[in-house]
Amino acid sequence: MDRSRQIKSIHFSDFSIPNNRLVVIAGPCAAESLDLCRTVAEVALRECASRNLPYIFKASFDKANRSSGGTSRGPGIHEGLEILAKIKAEFQVPITTDIHLPDQAAIVAEVADLLQIPAFLCRQSDLLEACAKTSKPVNVKKGQFLSPQDAKNIVSKLEEFGATGAMLTERGTTFGYNTLIVDMPGLEIMRSHGVPVCFDATHSAQRPGGMGQSSGGVRESIPAMVRAACAVGIDALFVETHPDPKSALSDKETQWQLDQFGVLLSQAVTFRNEI
């Protein structure tokens, strides 16, 4: 990957994407509680700081895309944003979370520094426009149904809507039933659209609907995919992590063990520095 090529930056108060460091976006899948978010933020920030990696905390206030109606969706927008605001203030880190409806954009933008669009909603023009109008940068997860080339249209929409910054995230592509694969050369294609590219390691390990009423996953595949993505070249790495994944309220099969978070980062840094 030609890192000298001009990329449109995403600016935060204390750093930008891209830069010469790998940006890490990490946190629990859902903002289950303030205590959980504090635990994860403390470890993730410490591990990132020790490697001089910029860190963005992530947790979802609502898991609207669930395999079944009976599974947990999280604390909701008001309680969830309160948790995120406290983490942001206590740890002095940027915050990101996903939104699902256009009327959520302005509310979430009061707390979040980076707005995230879920993969299944990546082509929703009204949602993209609402996010762009907040003047916050927007991270869009490429849909499991889109090619890397198709993601150019997402970038074009955000530019037309006046977004201050955009990033594309790879989180796997549908391969038959209940399976995802990652097109590693596609990372370069996505970056050729002139925006930073993030690799979502944990969602790429999912087996959507693979557990019947919930998604399964192949957690042991995560380190290999991280090494591969970093060797190709990425600007940001997305990891959902939890101190006890088996007890997590969502994505328990793919969240990365928190006490192994530093090990995963070390592999990412090593392979990214090789290119």
The H-level CATH homologous superfamily, spelled out, is Aldolase class I
Number of helices: 8
Cα distance spanning the termini: 8 Å
Largest sheet: 8 strands, parallel, barrel
List segments where confidence is low: pLDDT < 50 over at least 5 consecutive residues: 1-5
Order of helices and strands: EEEHEHEHEHEHEEEHEEEHEEH
Gyration radius, to the nearest Å? 17 Å
pLDDT averaged residue by residue: 91
Percent of sequence in beta strands: 15-25%
Helical percentage: 25-40%
Task: Please provide a brief summary of the model.
The chain is an alpha/beta fold. The protein has helices at 34-50, 77-91, 105-109, 125-132, 151-160, 184-191, 222-232, 261-273; strands spanning 10-11, 16-17, 23-27, 55-58, 95-98, 114-117, 138-141, 166-170, 173-174, 180-181, 197-200, 206-207, 216-217, 236-242, 256-257.
